[in-house]
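agent> call fold_tool(seq_1)
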Amino acid sequence: MKTDMTHPYRQHRRILVASLVGTAVEFYDFYIYATAAALVFGPLFFPASSPAAQLMLSFMSFSLAFIARPFGAILFGHFGDRIGRKSTLVASLMLMGISTLLIAFLPTYAMVGWVAPLLLCILRFGQGLGLGGEWGGAALLAVENAPPGWRARFGMVPQLGAPVGFIAANGLFLLIGMALSEADFAAWGWRIPFLASAILVGLGLWVRLKINETPEFSQALAKDPPIPIPIGELLRNHALATFAGTFAVVACFAIFYLSTAFALAHGTTELAYKREVFLFIQLAAILFLVLGIITSGVRSDATSAAQVLTWGCAATIVMGLAFGPLLGSGSLWLVWAALSLALFVMGFVYGPLGAWLPSLFPARVRYTGASVAFNAGGILGGAAAPITAQALSEMGGTSLVGIYLTIAGVLSLAGLMLARQPKAE
């Protein structure tokens, strides 16, 4: 006889798969861009001045999607709070997938000059616009279907899309790198992961078209008509919750992109490790993110999501002090230890967000509120992370990069304190 611990997951399997696939595509799309930006986009799409300048420009194009994400959050949040979670999630996934797929067909700077980086930036912006509506909708799809006492564990399922998407992206780049020469990888091999994204997007659309609207949204719609302008209602009556939520998510973005995009660029340039070796090290480290997310989700239902997030922010503050020296040590084992520790801690500042962030807002503006807070926090914690880390590393080594993580932990802890008694209808 199965225990009732598995029953809610079995009963809501399609819903949870739909929420997981979407965030897996989100992180797959984002990380294949981050990996390509760290490895090849600099010399392929930007004029030559110095390798460091090309890498900086490449990371700046990476940050464009974070700027687009809040606009996507407002756009898709508007429809998600007015017409429903399901159809909005389908639209956001399609925009995200088409933008990613088209990157595979872009000409390089050597072919068309300045048109190449312009097209790259336009598609990157399109990626971010679609992604702006993805996480909030996926989280609501899970938590608004959760039975009593299971909200955090359901909310952690879309969070598992981060390591799933990372493993798919990183593993594919690793296989391509092992199969191709450096010249072939730079010439055409990097395009394969962008082409492969169509498979994941197709799977996500197939699953999402088979689900129903969430019960909480249906009940809210039956009780009152939809708000005409959800973002207006959010700014008038829930500005403090939005502000607090924005700062609370800074740490998870900072940890992820410093442990992935920046670490990959640093490891393959300054530390001179082979690309395939460092990709394998990151694959081994990402398993600790899975462990952190699952542990934090279970503990959040046993205690509270806010309490577990507080533990994670405190750990981020301390971990940042060790991250920089370990990453810059030159020892592959210590580098792996730094990445594993950072990603495990990330599980505690990311896993509970699926339950905690939506709890700050009533159902009628929840899609907009959760999406805006999450994506605005992404600008502070994610867009600036690789660029700032690259600059700090050149100024004073990786120890300064670790301080960046410590500051991110302080900002997220401040956000949690600001929203320590969230109220939602």
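agent> call fold_tool(seq_2)
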Amino acid sequence: MLRVAEHAELTDTGRQRRANEDAFLARAPLFVVADGMGGAQAGEVASATAIEVLAAGLSEGESVEAQLTASVRQANAQIHALSVADDERAGMGTTVTAAYVGESNVTLVHVGDSRCYRWRDGTLERLTDDHSLVEEMVRQGQLTPEQALEHPQRSIITRALGPEAVVEPDAQTVGAHDGDLLLLCSDGLSTMISDAQIAAVLARDEPLGATTRGLVAAANDAGGRDNITVVLLRLEVLTGATADEIEKTRVGLDVGQLPAAKASAGVAATPASVERRVPHDPRAAVVRRRRWKPGIGTVLALFVAALLLSGLFFASQAIYFVGADREGFVSVYQGVPYELPLGIKLYREDYISGINLSQLPANERTTITEHSLRSRSDADDLVRQLELGRLGSSAP
């Protein structure tokens, strides 16, 4: 099963523009970059409209590729209608590059010169083709990629959402490997720095937030002639839980029902004793002779307690639950939703979604806040259904 392990986003006005006409959506499983054109009162509207339409989610019945293509066409129709109805917005438009992370692959739908790259095993690959004049000239052999970067007509695009009543998006579905990094960006990045420079920033292998800042900084250092938007998402392939694990972590299992784990071979059940050194005098000798020594019953009780605690810990590693973090975002946690004295938590955060509790109806919020124990696949499936907006009455 494929999912987004982590993502980071950053948009910047750049050094030569007064307003930012870029927009983006980063809500797993859908990620979008849109670069508006037509001025601050039009380009911003166009890109925001595209994001709004795509954020509404996909319908059911057709393939993801067909659904996402239909959403992009719907966005085009709405932007075109707005441009026709208002003379001040005449001719406005936007690019759009959308990536939808499915259960086993990634679907891309694209119009314009925003891009999607894939970073895999130290190699950068561009997955989309620009709908631009200079890209057409490169494909026809009239320009080299290096010449295209400095061509005076590099900003002229041949396809966008809005200018025409009908648009034909490019659509494709590509495979994914564990650890793949996808980069969605506006041309404010790709026209300022080369693919080799982008690869050099990605090769630093920094946290994603630092990488987005590094890419934006590189574009600004090169002149920052346009708005710059960067969206990064790292993919993870999950292996399915076994039937035995699913049975042991069924919904409603109480902590008292957790199976006790057997003590691992070679691991001491009780801590090693520590001899305290004291000055050698008669009183010290008396203290040592009168030192309390645990009886066999106490030792046995400590052994059982240690065994139970270790069993609880190891058992909790096969259990997951869905809850919300401090900011209200729905998250998957590994372990059980309990804390021991001294603030010792029996769980850890495994995945943070882009869904906030405030976005959910009351019945779905209850499903999240009741913290039912689940298998990993069950917890991931619940969050995915929430992200797709398809949970509805099927929630357990």
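agent> summarizing second result for user.
The chain has two domains: 2-237, 243-258+319-394. The chain has a mean pLDDT of 80.
agent> awaiting next instruction.
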